[in-house]
């Protein structure tokens, strides 16, 4: 079931948990060099939550990220299949009800549910992506996501406001066109952070950031602008920040 929604600046924010599971060994292995062992569980497991967010604003329905997708998703390292469809249904939302999909970036655990059976999963929605992300995408990502979405994609350069009260912020570093979503003082951060240790020390690098130095600068800048963090991969969907 979805988490309880919060209303912020007139926008209802409902966190949706697409999946929960340990990070697979091929991806998990490099992380102990970056994060202290105490940051993990007793078996040094790093259990990830995969959160998407449903926004209702002025009669419009916005989905932030599409999760890991179905059993055939390229996110083979993640706990497949995702349950985003069931979470949306429990919140009273059908795929055709979604007006805008903000894809924070094109990694498979955030964009894996954009397309189903070769067609847009949210048939009436506009899919918002940064130009830098679209230009960076190649290979299977372009073939399995960008091309099937076709003219449903709205490409933006930098910050945008697709729906009044819902701001999209270009947040490069993890990927060139990574973006976050801000509603009032709540920041839906995508992969701006991956582990709670980065809240205590934003300079902690992550091995899968395309530009680690830029990611640190972006992380510092955006965390200073928010009072509440809505992270993609932490256990809690909302975290109060002490700026």
From TrEMBL:
Molecular function via GO: hydrolase activity; metal ion binding
UniProt xrefs under InterPro entries: MBL_superfamily_lactonases, Metallo-B-lactamas, RibonucZ/Hydroxyglut_hydro
Phylogenetic placement of the source organism: Bacteria, Bacillati, Actinomycetota, Actinomycetes, Streptosporangiales
Protein known as: MBL fold metallo-hydrolase
Alphabetical list of PANTHER family matching this protein: QUORUM-QUENCHING LACTONASE YTNP-RELATED, QUORUM-QUENCHING LACTONASE YTNP-RELATED-RELATED
UniProt signal peptide: none
Pfam families xrefs: Lactamase_B
Protein species of origin: Microbispora triticiradicis
Keyword hit for Metal-binding: yes
Domain Metallo-beta-lactamase: 49-233
Keyword annotations: Hydrolase, Metal-binding, Zinc
Entry coiled-coil feature ranges: none
Family affiliation: Belongs to the metallo-beta-lactamase superfamily.
């Amino acid at each position: 079931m979805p988490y309880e929604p919060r209303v912020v600046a007139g926008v209802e924010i409902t966190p949706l948990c697409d999946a929960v599971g340990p990070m697979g060994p091929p991806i998990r292995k490099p992380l102990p060099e970056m994060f202290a062992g105490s940051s993990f569980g007793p078996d040094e497991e790093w259990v990830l939550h995969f959160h998407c967010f449903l926004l209702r604003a002025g009669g419009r329905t916005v989905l932030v990220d599409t999760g890991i997708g179905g059993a055939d998703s390229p996110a083979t390292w993640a706990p497949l299949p995702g349950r985003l469809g069931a979470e949306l249904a429990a919140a009273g939302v059908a795929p055709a009800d979604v007006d805008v999909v903000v894809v924070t970036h094109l990694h498979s655990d955030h964009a894996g549910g954009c397309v189903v059976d070769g067609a847009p999963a949210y048939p009436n929605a506009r899919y918002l992506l940064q130009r830098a992300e679209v230009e960076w995408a190649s290979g299977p990502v372009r073939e399995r996501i960008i091309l099937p979405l076709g003219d449903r994609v709205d490409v933006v350069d930098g910050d945008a406001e697709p729906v009044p009260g819902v701001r999209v912020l270009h947040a490069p570093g993890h990927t060139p066109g990574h973006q976050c979503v801000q509603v009032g003082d709540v920041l839906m951060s995508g992969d701006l952070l991956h582990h709670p240790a980065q809240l205590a020390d934003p300079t902690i690098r992550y091995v899968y950031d395309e530009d680690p130095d830029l990611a640190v600068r972006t992380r510092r800048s955006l965390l200073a602008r928010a009072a509440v963090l809505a992270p993609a991969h932490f256990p809690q969907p909302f975290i109060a920040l002490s700026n």
